[in-house]
Amino acid sequence: MLMSENEFWFNMKTGEVESGKQSLALYRIGPFETFELAENALEIIAARSAEWLEDDEQRDEFVQSEKDSSADGKFPD
Q1: Which of 12, 17, 37, 42 is most buried as measured by Cβ atoms within 10 A of its Cβ?
Q2: CB contact at 8 A, 29 and 10
C-alpha cells in the first residue's frame, strides 16, 4: 500500500480519527482509505478477528480429523 496524505488512522487512546500520522504508532490503527472506515476501526477489527478465529477452528478440526483417521493403523493409499 502506498502511503499518501489521505490516510486515516483511528487513535485508540483518544477514540478519534486522525488524518495522517499524528500520534504514536502505539495508539494508531490503520491506515484506512476513508474517514468512515477509520471511524469504524474497532468494529472492522472485531469482525476480522472473528473470521480468523473461525478459520483457525476449522483448520484445527480438519487437522484433528486427519490425525484421527491416520490413527487407525492403516497407511494411506
Answers
A1: 17
A2: yes
Rounded CA-CA distance 33/48 in Å is 17
Query: Is residue 75's pLDDT more than 80?
Result: no
Angle of CA points 29, 33, 36, to nearest 5°: 80
Name the pTM for this structure.
0.65
Q: Which residues, at least 6 apart from 3, have a Cβ–Cβ distance to it below 8 Å? A: 31
Distances (CA, A) of 4 to 1, 7, 34: 9, 6, 12
Instruction: List residues bridging with 19 in a β-sheet.
Output: 8
9 three-state secondary structure: strand
Q: What is the pLDDT of residue 10?
A: 98
User: Collapsing DSSP states into helix, strand and coil, what is residue 61?
Assistant: helix
Between residues 1 and 10, the one the model is more confident about = 10
